[in-house]
Amino acid sequence: PDLFEAPDYYNIDDLLSDEHKLVRDAARDWVKRDVSPIIEEYAQKAEFPKQIINGLAEIGAFGPYIPEEYGGAGLDQISYGIIMQEIERGDSGVRSTASVQSSLVMYPIWKYGTEEQRQKYLPKLASGEWMGSFGLTEPDHGSNPAGMTTNFKDMGDHYLLNGAKLWISNSPFCNVAVVWAKNEEGRIHGLIVERGMEGFSTPETHNKWSLRASATGELIFQDVKVPKENLLPNKSGLGAPLGCLDSARYGIAWGAIGAAMDCYDTALRYSKERIQFGKPIAGFQLQQKKLAEMITEITKAQLLALRLGQLKNEDRATSAQISMAKRNNVDMAIKIAREARQMLGGMGITGEYSIMRHMMNLESVITYEGTHDIHLLITGLDITGINAFK
Ligand code: TGC
Ligand code: FAD
């Protein structure tokens, strides 16, 4: 197939297995065929393209590393990363949908759920028949989720859930939501809430200038009766949702490389064709500086992600290592998007090219899953032992 140009300045392909390359080519081919041609239109009209859900399932984007017995793709962590990279080459919003489904909905059900919960939910989530969302953030508790006020009471034969979550990806169309709430003792637990439960609503958040092709909304619980069998029993406390975030943040570290590659590739091609002052703008030193720094930063980010993937495969990656990669790679991508946008001059602000969309998307990516500053403080805490959050 006619694939995207994929910068690989350090022959990193040599470090990938044949399976990694097969997974990558399938994802890349699908993004080029089914996502890139339509995504600008959906971003412009601020709508998630639901017709791509089947394709996402087919390339293994829903639960790449979830075992095949539960409908997952049974792949390793590097394959998971590569799939996120290829999807985000198309659009960060589409990658968000896959990240949430895999790392924030399937992962907690797989890791913290009962066998019955795994059997009931995972195959349907893997096939895309059901879509999930993840409710941690609240209107008054974003970076500090430990302060959450959403809560549930034990009513004997069921739980009664009250509260509200804000900024929830996939919420407007999710069939199930993994929701984090405090019990009467103030301990955080995960609950699976299903659409249709009385008192549960999911209003959409409009007027976003970022991640427009991803649906974002609220999760509102007004005396929702949640069956007792919907509680995730095998882990509680803030560490439970943070464990899910570790997996999603790892995927984002790879995903951001995809957005950066697309911006770099677009700027490189454009600059070789665009003639000003009698020569291609790629021939001017100032433009070469931009391109040379872009490929340098992409290469460093690729190596960081790949090494982190190896550590993840060996179950040795620490949360602080994941924070470093998420922070570095998203920052790398947003800077490349801004520089690449300038290289296209006026054309760079139009939807004829993907760069401005990536740039705006990355404003969400640098904020969600722990902001740029929060991840810096995680590194700071890790290396000094001193907590600067509070
Ligand atoms: P702290 O006292 O540090 O920790 C509480 C407990 O959690 C444990 N822990 C972790 N466990 C697993 N993975 C991690 N990354 C962990 N970090 C900490 C910790 O050991 C402790 O366990 P225990 O057993 O002692 O209780 O907690 P803190 O309240 O001081 O907060 C730390 C901080 C600020 C780093 C944390 O709250 C944080 O990461 N805040 C950022 C919030 C965030 O990232 N929200 C993301 C919401 S989801 C989202 O954005 C989805 S976007 C998806 C998309 O569309 O792609
Ligand atoms: P705040 O926490 O209010 O932070 C505001 C500013 O203060 C930031 O710059 C932050 O870095 C800084 N700050 C905060 N605390 C400190 C400190 N201790 N020291 C120094 N600076 C600090 N959440 C979910 O649960 N599920 C989802 O699916 C989801 N999807 C999202 C999709 C989109 C498009 C967006 C934009 C967000 C999404 N989020 C989701 C929420 C996201 O995780 C939060 O926006 C993020 O964690 C930051 O929280 P906040 O917006 O409340 O900002």
TrEMBL record:
<keyword id="KW-0560">Oxidoreductase</keyword>
<feature type="domain" description="Acyl-CoA dehydrogenase/oxidase N-terminal">
    <location>
        <begin position="17"/>
        <end position="129"/>
    </location>
</feature>
<protein>
    <recommendedName>
        <fullName>glutaryl-CoA dehydrogenase (ETF)</fullName>
        <ecNumber>1.3.8.6</ecNumber>
    </recommendedName>
</protein>
<keyword id="KW-0285">Flavoprotein</keyword>
<keyword id="KW-0809">Transit peptide</keyword>
<feature type="domain" description="Acyl-CoA oxidase/dehydrogenase middle">
    <location>
        <begin position="133"/>
        <end position="224"/>
    </location>
</feature>
<dbReference type="InterPro" id="IPR006089">
    <property type="entry name" value="Acyl-CoA_DH_CS"/>
</dbReference>
<dbReference type="InterPro" id="IPR052033">
    <property type="entry name" value="Glutaryl-CoA_DH_mitochondrial"/>
</dbReference>
<dbReference type="InterPro" id="IPR009075">
    <property type="entry name" value="AcylCo_DH/oxidase_C"/>
</dbReference>
<dbReference type="Pfam" id="PF00441">
    <property type="entry name" value="Acyl-CoA_dh_1"/>
</dbReference>
<feature type="domain" description="Acyl-CoA dehydrogenase/oxidase C-terminal">
    <location>
        <begin position="236"/>
        <end position="378"/>
    </location>
</feature>
<dbReference type="InterPro" id="IPR046373">
    <property type="entry name" value="Acyl-CoA_Oxase/DH_mid-dom_sf"/>
</dbReference>
<dbReference type="InterPro" id="IPR006091">
    <property type="entry name" value="Acyl-CoA_Oxase/DH_mid-dom"/>
</dbReference>
<dbReference type="Pfam" id="PF02770">
    <property type="entry name" value="Acyl-CoA_dh_M"/>
</dbReference>
<comment type="pathway">
    <text>Amino-acid metabolism; tryptophan metabolism.</text>
</comment>
<dbReference type="InterPro" id="IPR036250">
    <property type="entry name" value="AcylCo_DH-like_C"/>
</dbReference>
<comment type="similarity">
    <text>Belongs to the acyl-CoA dehydrogenase family.</text>
</comment>
<dbReference type="InterPro" id="IPR013786">
    <property type="entry name" value="AcylCoA_DH/ox_N"/>
</dbReference>
<dbReference type="InterPro" id="IPR009100">
    <property type="entry name" value="AcylCoA_DH/oxidase_NM_dom_sf"/>
</dbReference>
<dbReference type="InterPro" id="IPR037069">
    <property type="entry name" value="AcylCoA_DH/ox_N_sf"/>
</dbReference>
<dbReference type="Pfam" id="PF02771">
    <property type="entry name" value="Acyl-CoA_dh_N"/>
</dbReference>
<comment type="pathway">
    <text>Amino-acid metabolism; lysine degradation.</text>
</comment>
<keyword id="KW-0274">FAD</keyword>
